[in-house]
C-alpha cells in the first residue's frame, strides 16, 4: 500500500446479511435515540418526545 492510498478494508460490514452490522440507521426510528424514546442520560428524547419514531422536527434548516 502506498503512502497516498486509503486503507478502506475495515469500512464495510463483515457480513452484509447481518442487520446489526448495517451502517445506515433505520429511517423508521428517531435519529437521536434510535427508537428507544430516551437519551443516554435517561431523559425523554427531545426530538421524538418519547415515541421513538422520527418527526418533522428532525433535520437542519
From TrEMBL:
InterPro entries per the UniProt record, alphabetical: HSP_DnaJ_Cys-rich_dom_sf
Alphabetical keyword list: Exonuclease, Hydrolase, Nuclease
Superkingdom classification of source: Bacteria
Keyword presence, Lipid biosynthesis: no
Comp. bias regions, Basic and acidic residues: 1-18
Chain intervals for the UniProt region annotation (Disordered): 1-28
GO molecular function, one term: exonuclease activity
Annotated transmembrane regions: none
Name the UniProt record assigns to this protein: RecJ-like exonuclease
